[in-house]
Amino acid sequence: MVTIEEMGQRARRAFGVLAAAPTEQKNACLEGLARSIEGEQAALLAANKLDVEAAKAAGLSPAMVDRLALSDLRLAGIAADLRGVAALPDPVGEVFEQQTLPNGLRVRKQRVALGVIAMIYESRPNVTIDAAGLGIKTGNAVILRGGSETVRSNAALVDLVHRALAESGLPEDAVQFVDDPDRARVGELLRLNQYVDMVIPRGGAGLHQFCRDTSNIPVMTGGIGICHLYVDETADLRAALPVIRNAKIQRPTVCNALDTLLVDRKIAGAFIPQVVELLAKDGVTFRADPEALSALRGSPSPAALPAGPQDFDTEWLSLVLGLKVVGGLEEALGHIAAHSTAHSDGILTRSDENARRFVAAVDSAAVYVNASTRFTDGAQLGLGAEVAISTQRVHARGPMGLRELTTYKWVIEGDYHVRP
To answer: pTM for this structure?
Structure first.
């Protein structure tokens, strides 16, 4: 068995090769991987079925099982995202902020890969391919450690990654997979600062906290979303309903799904019953504050229950929606500041002034005006794919695509200059 330290050594060596690979070679690898995924759908789905059955038997939550499950449609989407990444410009080598100083020195910044990235994640076998594909395109070596619940799916996918790397003449060690489910391996990986440059966890709050507490490598956290939409008194209520429905039910188990709907007091009596009537048909249940419940007195719903003390601090990951009435924009901003996880928050309004104030005041990685929070996604925002949604303020925020997986170096050219 290869040790974690040996994986780090191999990754560092592979990075030296991959970082210098031409764009055409990296793109050929991604295209080959996309073809393999399409050609091996039956085998991938068979491996994934075993994982799903084991997850259900182990009592994993429906949200976790949904994140784990693959389908023909999801595999087609994964292949399409790979081709989308291949079609995007390669950020490696990009030159920016060029200038010539008064002394004649020619100075520029030039994009380079970050190095070796450790991805630690739960469920979501699509992360395996997103991380591998984005890592290959940006010249970063990747060490993958998925959860034990998805080990068969990940092993099958990594086999295809290795095939694509070998066929394109790139080192297979550029993408490695920790298949040992022992959590001790995670601890070893988090202390591998000699070889690993960044750790990116994707999973629940417990995983993120464990990585922050344990790692001696920089950790890029995010992906935990308590997402809000505020409907102000000027909003087009008819147009707002499908936006709210999309944000809540289009895929309720993901981090950019809507968790709390804030409604201006001036429209609450008319609008909240419409929201409850519409979403209850989709199986949504509600946790409503006293004023929201009061708005339903004329048309009570068994789907609406009183909100508990922690309900507005809960990422539901299911067909549950918090409802709260607020006295205006400033109260909505106060609620978001107190309860948001700085992921995705938005306003539905016809007031330009309110939109500007909301965008200026809400300190989230993605801030929306008159749109569903479900667009916080690398592919949806033109990045091809993503390795994570960062909610930090350092290095990158929001979906982390190609450019977010690079750093830069200074290049200074002179004519045998010496400093006076």
So the answer is: 0.87
